[in-house]
Amino acid sequence: MAVTVVFLGKLADFAGEGERELPAPLDWQGLLGALGPDLAATASGERTKVAVNGAVLADKSALAAGDGDEVALLPPVSGG
């Protein structure tokens, strides 16, 4: 049983990979613990969003992902 965590944009560069498989079920604290301290600090930032199966969470701490789910970490978007 696994959850696919997808790193988008600069988060993929920071993570050194585009995605990672983590054991299910996965909650917010479990995700942070699996990311390592530097990446967890970035993911915890106010401007980084989290989506589960394409739906952006209003509250990251409400993350509850199960087997087969995809969790995406979305970096802040800049435009010009």
User: Which structural class do the helices and strands define?
Assistant: alpha+beta
What is the string of SSEs from the N terminus onward?
EHEEHHEEEE
Q: Mean of residue pLDDT?
A: 94
In the CATH hierarchy, the architecture is Roll
The percent range for helix content is: 25-40%
Number of separate helices: 3
> Strand percentage, roughly?
25-35%
- Low-confidence blocks of residues: none
- The CATH topology label is Ubiquitin-like (UB roll)
Q: How many DSSP-defined strands?
A: 7
Summarize the main sheet.
5 strands, mixed
What is the domain total for the residues? Answer: 1
CATH superfamily: Beta-grasp domain
Give an overview in words.
- With about 80 residues, the chain is α+β, with helices and mostly antiparallel strands.
- The protein has one domain (about 1-75): Ubiquitin-like (UB roll) (Roll).
- Helices cover about 30% and strands about 30% of the residues.
- It contains three helices and seven strands; from the N terminus they run E-H-E-E-H-H-E-E-E-E.
- The strands form two sheets. A five-stranded mixed β-sheet has the order 2-1-7-4-5. A two-stranded antiparallel ribbon has the order 3-6.
- A hairpin with a 2-residue loop joins strand 4 (about 50) and strand 5.
- Helix 2 packs across helix 3 (about 35-45).
- The N and C termini lie far apart (about 40 Å).
- The mean pLDDT is about 95.
Q: What's this model, at a glance?
A:
The protein is of the alpha+beta class and about 80 residues long. It is built from three helices and seven strands. β4 and β5 form a beta hairpin.
